[in-house]
C-alpha cells in the first residue's frame, strides 16, 4: 500500500477588514496625544494610528500632535515615532519607507509641562495653524495616554485654555466637535471615580467623553450582542430556566513584568474585574435594548450592574478567593514569585489572582451564579465566557453510556482565537448507544476570511466618528466600583493568610476550586 505524502497548503490570505463603513466616513481632525513619549503611546496608540491611516485611507486629513515634556521638536518627535513603528508594529503590518515618511508628515510636537498655562496656549495656536495649513477642520480629539493622577490637571487646563468647547465651523451653522479619550483605571474606588467624573464633567459634556476599555474593541465582545439578538434560537434559552451558571475567565500567562508600582496599588480585582470583566458580564446578561443606539445599549448594561448587590462581609468571605503566585517555571525558564518581584513589598498581600461568585438579582438571572476568575502566571493567555446549560431533566441513557459527557456549553472565545464553540452530546458511531461531547466550532478568521481589527484601532475610529457605543458611561463606572468596593473594603479587614499561594503555571489556588465545587457538580472549565 502506497502512502501519499501530505502536501501542506499555505493558509489563505485574509481579506482586510473595513473601518469606515455603513455610509460613515471620518471628518478631518487633529488628534492631540498627551503622554506621547510614554510606553502606552509608543507601543499601542501610535502603531495603531499608523495602521489605521495607512490601511484605511480617508478622504480627510488626520494630524497627530504630541503634547509632552521632552524638548524634541517636530523632527525629534518624528524620529522617535518611526523608531517605535519599526519596533512595535507586527511584521505583516510594517510600513514601507515611503509610507512611514508620509505618516511622519502628519506628526507635530508641542513641548510643555502638564501644569503650564502657556503650553496650552501654544497648543491652541498650533491647532489653529493646522486647521489653516492642514485643513483639520477645527475638530479635536484629546487622548490622555497619561498616568491617571494627571488627568484632572490636564482636563482643567484644557478647559481654562478654551480648548474643550466646540466652535462653530466657518460659514456653517454646524459646530466642530471636541472629544476626549481617557484610559483606565478611571479612579481607584467609588469615591475617586465620582470625584473624577465631577471634575471632567465641569469641562466636557458627557457625550464628549470616551472612557476607553480595549476589551470592548475585541470582535467577540461586539459579537455577543449579535449572537444574542440576531438569532431566534438563543434568546428563549438565555435565562435561569435553562442556564445553570456562567463562567468568565481572563487568564494571563505573564507576571506583572515592570508594573510593580501600579499593580501593588490595584491588584487583579481592580486591574481586570472592575473594568474588563464587568463590561463582558453586562453584555452577556443585559436585556434586549430598544435599538442599537449607544445610550440604549448602555442603559441596559447599567441595569445589570445595579441588579448586583454589594456583598456583605460574610458574603465576601464565602464568595471570593484571593491568590498570589509563587516561584515556578514559564516556558521552561524559572520565574520568581510575586513577593520577589522588583518593587514589590516582601510582605505584600496584593492579589495576583481572584475568583468570585456574583448573582444578578432580577427575573432573568435569579439564582444563576456568575463565576469570575482572573490571574497572572496562569498556564495560558485566554479570555473566555462559558454559558453552561442545565442537565437534561431525565437522563434516558445509562451512566456507562454517558461516560464523561458534559452538559451543553456555549463558549465565547474573546482571545486569542476569537470565535464561538457549542458543545453538544452525540452518539458515537457503532452498535452501542455510547455518547460523547462534540464541538461545533466557528473561528471568526476561518469562517469569514477577514483579518480582525485590533481593538484600539476600532475604538479610536469610533471616537473619531463620535460613536460611543463601545465606551463606558459615567454611571457604568460608578456602579462597577460600588460592587468592587464592597469586596476590597472587607479584604482589608481579613487575615493576610487568606491570600492563598499558587504555583506559577497552575490554574490558581485550590481554594478557587472549592469555591465552585461546593455548589454541586460544577467545576472550572479551563481554556
TrEMBL record:
<feature type="binding site">
    <location>
        <position position="218"/>
    </location>
    <ligand>
        <name>substrate</name>
    </ligand>
</feature>
<dbReference type="GO" id="GO:0004345">
    <property type="term" value="F:glucose-6-phosphate dehydrogenase activity"/>
</dbReference>
<dbReference type="Pfam" id="PF02781">
    <property type="entry name" value="G6PD_C"/>
</dbReference>
<dbReference type="InterPro" id="IPR022675">
    <property type="entry name" value="G6P_DH_C"/>
</dbReference>
<keyword id="KW-0119">Carbohydrate metabolism</keyword>
<dbReference type="GO" id="GO:0050661">
    <property type="term" value="F:NADP binding"/>
</dbReference>
<dbReference type="Pfam" id="PF00479">
    <property type="entry name" value="G6PD_N"/>
</dbReference>
<dbReference type="InterPro" id="IPR001282">
    <property type="entry name" value="G6P_DH"/>
</dbReference>
<comment type="pathway">
    <text>Carbohydrate degradation; pentose phosphate pathway; D-ribulose 5-phosphate from D-glucose 6-phosphate (oxidative stage): step 1/3.</text>
</comment>
<feature type="domain" description="Glucose-6-phosphate dehydrogenase C-terminal">
    <location>
        <begin position="226"/>
        <end position="524"/>
    </location>
</feature>
<feature type="binding site">
    <location>
        <position position="69"/>
    </location>
    <ligand>
        <name>NADP(+)</name>
    </ligand>
</feature>
<keyword id="KW-0521">NADP</keyword>
<feature type="binding site">
    <location>
        <position position="252"/>
    </location>
    <ligand>
        <name>substrate</name>
    </ligand>
</feature>
<dbReference type="GO" id="GO:0006006">
    <property type="term" value="P:glucose metabolic process"/>
</dbReference>
<keyword id="KW-0313">Glucose metabolism</keyword>
<keyword id="KW-0560">Oxidoreductase</keyword>
<dbReference type="GO" id="GO:0009051">
    <property type="term" value="P:pentose-phosphate shunt, oxidative branch"/>
</dbReference>
<protein>
    <recommendedName>
        <fullName>Glucose-6-phosphate 1-dehydrogenase</fullName>
        <ecNumber>1.1.1.49</ecNumber>
    </recommendedName>
</protein>
<dbReference type="InterPro" id="IPR022674">
    <property type="entry name" value="G6P_DH_NAD-bd"/>
</dbReference>
<comment type="similarity">
    <text>Belongs to the glucose-6-phosphate dehydrogenase family.</text>
</comment>
<feature type="binding site">
    <location>
        <position position="271"/>
    </location>
    <ligand>
        <name>substrate</name>
    </ligand>
</feature>
<dbReference type="GO" id="GO:0005829">
    <property type="term" value="C:cytosol"/>
</dbReference>
<feature type="domain" description="Glucose-6-phosphate dehydrogenase NAD-binding">
    <location>
        <begin position="32"/>
        <end position="223"/>
    </location>
</feature>
<feature type="binding site">
    <location>
        <begin position="113"/>
        <end position="114"/>
    </location>
    <ligand>
        <name>NADP(+)</name>
    </ligand>
</feature>
<feature type="binding site">
    <location>
        <position position="214"/>
    </location>
    <ligand>
        <name>substrate</name>
    </ligand>
</feature>
<feature type="binding site">
    <location>
        <position position="184"/>
    </location>
    <ligand>
        <name>NADP(+)</name>
    </ligand>
</feature>
<feature type="active site" description="Proton acceptor">
    <location>
        <position position="276"/>
    </location>
</feature>
<feature type="binding site">
    <location>
        <position position="376"/>
    </location>
    <ligand>
        <name>substrate</name>
    </ligand>
</feature>
<dbReference type="InterPro" id="IPR036291">
    <property type="entry name" value="NAD(P)-bd_dom_sf"/>
</dbReference>
<comment type="function">
    <text>Catalyzes the oxidation of glucose 6-phosphate to 6-phosphogluconolactone.</text>
</comment>
Amino acid at each position: 500500500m502506497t502512502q501519499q505524502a501530505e502536501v501542506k497548503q499555505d493558509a489563505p490570505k485574509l481579506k482586510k477588514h473595513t473601518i469606515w463603513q455603513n455610509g460613515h466616513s471620518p471628518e478631518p481632525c487633529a488628534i492631540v496625544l498627551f503622554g506621547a513619549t510614554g510606553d502606552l503611546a509608543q507601543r499601542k496608540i501610535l502603531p495603531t494610528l499608523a495602521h489605521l491611516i495607512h490601511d484605511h485611507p480617508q478622504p480627510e486629513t488626520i494630524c497627530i500632535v504630541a503634547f509632552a515634556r521632552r524638548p524634541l521638536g517636530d523632527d525629534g518627535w518624528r524620529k522617535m515615532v518611526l523608531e517605535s513603528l519599526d519596533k512595535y508594529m507586527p511584521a505583516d503590518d510594517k510600513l514601507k519607507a515611503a509610507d512611514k515618511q508620509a505618516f511622519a508628515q502628519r506628526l507635530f510636537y508641542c513641548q510643555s509641562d502638564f501644569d503650564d498655562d502657556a503650553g496650552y496656549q501654544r497648543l491652541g495656536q498650533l491647532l489653529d495653524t493646522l486647521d489653516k495649513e492642514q485643513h483639520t477642520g477645527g475638530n479635536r480629539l484629546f487622548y490622555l495616554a497619561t498616568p491617571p493622577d494627571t488627568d484632572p490637571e490636564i482636563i482643567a487646563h484644557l478647559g481654562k485654555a478654551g480648548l474643550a468647547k466646540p466652535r462653530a465651523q466657518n460659514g456653517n451653522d454646524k459646530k466642530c466637535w471636541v472629544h476626549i479619550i481617557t484610559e483606565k483605571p478611571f479612579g481607584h474606588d467609588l469615591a475617586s471615580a465620582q470625584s473624577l467624573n465631577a471634575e471632567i464633567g465641569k469641562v466636557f459634556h458627557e457625550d464628549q467623553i470616551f472612557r476607553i476599555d480595549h476589551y470592548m474593541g475585541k470582535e467577540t465582545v461586539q459579537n455577543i450582542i449579535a449572537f444574542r439578538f440576531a438569532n431566534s434560537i438563543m434568546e428563549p434559552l438565555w435565562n435561569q430556566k435553562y442556564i445553570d451558571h456562567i463562567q468568565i475567565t481572563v487568564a494571563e500567562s505573564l507576571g506583572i513584568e515592570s508594573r510593580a508600582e501600579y499593580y501593588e496599588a490595584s491588584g487583579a480585582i481592580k486591574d481586570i474585574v472592575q473594568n474588563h470583566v464587568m463590561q463582558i458580564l453586562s453584555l452577556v446578561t443585559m436585556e434586549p435594548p430598544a435599538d442599537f443606539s449607544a445610550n440604549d445599549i448602555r442603559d441596559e448594561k447599567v441595569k445589570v450592574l445595579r441588579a448586583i448587590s454589594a456583598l456583605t462581609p460574610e458574603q465576601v468571605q464565602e464568595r471570593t478567593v484571593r491568590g498570589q503566585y509563587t516561584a515556578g517555571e514559564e516556558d521552561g525558564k524559572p520565574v520568581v514569585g510575586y513577593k520577589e518581584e522588583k518593587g514589590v513589598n516582601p510582605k505584600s498581600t496584593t492579589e495576583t489572582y481572584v475568583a468570585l461568585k456574583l448573582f444578578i438579582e432580577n427575573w432573568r438571572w435569579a439564582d444563576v451564579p456568575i463565576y469570575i476568575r482572573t490571574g497572572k502566571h496562569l498556564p495560558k493567555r485566554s479570555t473566555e465566557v462559558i454559558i453552561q446549560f442545565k442537565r437534561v431533566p431525565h437522563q434516558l441513557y445509562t451512566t456507562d453510556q454517558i461516560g464523561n459527557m458534559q452538559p451543553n456549553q456555549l463558549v465565547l472565545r474573546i482571545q486569542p482565537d476569537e470565535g464561538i464553540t457549542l458543545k453538544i452530546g452525540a452518539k458515537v458511531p457503532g452498535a452501542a448507544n455510547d455518547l460523547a461531547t462534540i464541538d461545533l466550532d466557528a473561528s471568526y478568521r476561518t469562517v469569514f476570511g477577514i483579518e480582525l481589527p485590533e481593538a484600539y484601532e476600532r475604538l479610536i475610529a469610533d471616537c473619531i466618528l463620535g460613536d460611543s457605543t463601545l465606551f463606558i458611561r459615567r454611571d457604568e463606572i460608578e456602579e462597577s466600583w460600588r460592587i468592587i468596593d464592597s469586596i476590597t473594603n472587607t479584604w482589608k479587614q481579613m487575615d493576610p493568610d487568606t491570600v492563598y499561594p499558587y504555583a506559577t503555571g497552575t490554574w490558581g489556588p485550590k481554594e478557587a476550586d472549592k469555591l465552585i465545587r461546593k455548589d454541586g457538580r460544577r467545576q472550572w472549565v479551563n481554556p
